[in-house]
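thoughts on both lines:
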Amino acid sequence: MAIQFTQNARTAVLWAQEEAMRLGQSQVEPEHLLLGLMHGDDTCAIRLLDRLGIAASQVRDAVELTGGGPPAETSQLSAVTRQIVEHAHAETEQSGDETVGSEHLLLALLRSRGNRAAEALRKLGLSYERASGELGHLAGEPLSAAEPIHRVPEVRPGFLRGRDLVSIQDLSPEDVHGLFELTREIKSGRMPQNVRGKTLALIFEKPSLRTRVTFSVAMTRLGGQSIYLSPQDIGMGSRESVADVARCMERWVDAIAARTYAHETVTALAGAADIPVVNALTDREHPCQALADFYTVLEKKSETRGMKFAFVGDGNNVAQSLMLLAPRLGTHFTLACPPGYEPVNDIVEQARSLAAAHGTRFEITSDAFEAAADADVLYTDVWTSMGQEEESEKRSRDFAGFQINDELVREAKEDVLVLHCLPAHRGQEIADEVLDGPNAGVWDQAENRLHIQAALLAAVL
């Protein structure tokens, strides 16, 4: 009989495959499974460890991984890991549960011998007897305490069918977690079939490298196609109204990704078209970038809750999307910018309200070192965005002291993750030694634009 997993256990196995592939290994070993269990917000395995006085970060530190070659394209459970999964199934039957949960996988790992995962757990003073006894107390807690904080919707293509993504505000925390799950599926090579034969229109008023390429490649890999439309092709708002363009496009294509100067243009497209419209960048927000950024944080750090995310630079469209997304994922957000370069007031108020509702901190400061202090993530963007070239010299003067360099990185945590949405102006907002240094996750971040947008398209189509 096939083994049935809970959503959290299934997610842990997927993360285990990611861990193995990242290290260039085609087989998932017990240590990868253990690391996979450390992903998530509030799973039963993590709650069990917490009751035993062990943090997920301690487990990650205790696991000794080998590898480091080119990433593997696929990964399968090794014979030893398959046996551990079977033992987890036995734990499930013994406890009277119907499905294998993350806690059963953890107990099976504790029962195993002769592998790095078992050695790491014992090094932390954990034993099967101690954990299984504590699990009995956990099982007696109210359901609301034992369940994950965010109930992730079943990972399935089309779970946001027909919806627009104009702002991060269009997504609930559950929507975001669902997109992350679908992204993980796609990145592991499990391609949804619901986009096959469909067409995405790319309406771009601004030139682009990452956005255009990643949307185009995403549609191709999903079995669909894209068509690129420049300002010269449409003349939107001059030769023809935005609403008329939208009404024509909805008869020809299945979705629109629009990269425009004015946010109102994308809002008007979404209001007039009966097909999904995705904001691929406006002067107000860049939601696709923010989603890819936080997915990268989740990959690198295994969690987002309780993290300090520090953005150093202009309070621009990327910063505004990030500050709206951070509280949804339980992340504290600090922005450091010169006076006069703060985000727009209404988004600041939205971010403050969201932080209060989700129990996170939101701060704006003019001191880059204060923002960087004890940060888990350091993020920057160009000081002068497209369309602001005439302000370049003034901005360079105003942003002096807001560069992410070695001195600023030393203020953050030792394992701080440094991100930049690119393109980077080396020597201005970020120093070469940081962008090319060991803490940078910029190239993984750029790659994840492809995977998160593929997931988004599979979700809305």
Q: What stands out?
A: Confidence is low (pLDDT under 50) at residues 141-153.
